[in-house]
Amino acid sequence: MIFEHIKYEVKRHIGILTLNRPEAYNALSNVMRDELRTVLIQIEQDPDIRVLIITGQGKAFCAGGDVKLMVSRMESGLDFKERREIFRNDVAAMVKRLYAIKIPVIAAINGGAYGAGVSISLLCDMRVAADNAKFGFSFAKRGLIPDWGANYFLPRLIGYAKAMELVACGKVIDSQEALACGLVNQVTSESELMDTVLKIAEGIALASPNAIAESKNALRFGLMQSMDEALEYEATTQSLCQLSSDHKEGVLSFVEKREPTF
Questions:
Q1: Is 65 helix (H, G, I), strand (E, B) or coil?
Q2: Low-confidence residues of the chain, pLDDT below 70?
Q3: Strand pairing of 172-174 and 134-136?
Q4: Where are the domains of the chain?
Q5: For the whole model, what pTM was predicted?
């Protein structure tokens, strides 16, 4: 399928989704949003994909919302109820769809990530940043609160106090500060970014797809459950995993001193 504002390709069980409006620093156009919806459905329905990488084309990861689109919306005359319904069906629905993807999602942050661009990276399970990457939470300077799920994910990732600092000050931080506060997992050189992320993805793709998907679920649920609830979930899910063909292959390959084939 040919897209206008994104690119999507598959390599060895790894999907690579590239935001592709480099002339606009990959700002989120209506076309890009529609194309993202389409490709996320495609990814959900493809059992061959075991890892998804999201990155940006050119100098930026994503500059956030398109200012021209913001101006158009201000001039539209939509009332509160209309705006809220649009947000629910657009942004909120997109956040839920990306968050619901069962496979691991890695953000390869190749440059500036601002506003909703940072929020999109927070929806990923891991973030690897180039050493030239910048992160900016400039929502308040536009009279807005963080969106695309950032209010939920940011304080869980880096803690309330640091999240409040970044949001209230509209502070732009570099990749090293992002690493220090836990916003990203790893920093690498710009030239080695995709090779680094692909190496991580290839390692994940070799593991049991079922075990990875269930681990992702278990870790997420563990953030929101009591210990008793987490242990009950663990008991149920681990018992199902122990009955799977992947578990049998994992044990036999270890005994036979070979790499498992899932």
A1: strand
A2: none
A3: antiparallel
A4: 6-205, 209-255
A5: 0.91
Query: What is the per-residue pLDDT for 20?
Result: 98
Beta carbons of 100 and 40 less than 8 angstroms apart: no
DSSP code of residue 186: E
Q: What is the pLDDT of residues 21-52, one digit of tens each?
A: 999 999 999 999 999 999 999 999 999 999 99
> Strands of 172-174's sheet, edge to edge?
60-62, 112-114, 134-136, 172-174
**Do the domains 209-255 and 6-205 match in fold?**
no
CATH of 6-205, one of 3.40.50.11540, 3.90.226.10, 3.40.50.2000, 3.40.190.170: 3.90.226.10
End-to-end CA distance of the chain, in Å? 28
pLDDT in tens, 129-147: 999 999 999 888 888 899 9
Predicted confidence at residue 69, as pLDDT, reads 76
Locate 240 and state its tokens: 């199902």
203: amino acid identity, one letter: G
Architecture, CATH, for domain 209-255: Orthogonal Bundle (1.10)
Please name which of 60, 65, 19, 17 lies closest in space to residue 40, comparing C-alpha atoms. Answer: 17
Q: DSSP 3-state helix, strand, coil percentages of the chain (rounded to 5)?
A: 55, 15, 30
Handedness of CA 101, 106, 110, 115 (dihedral sign): positive
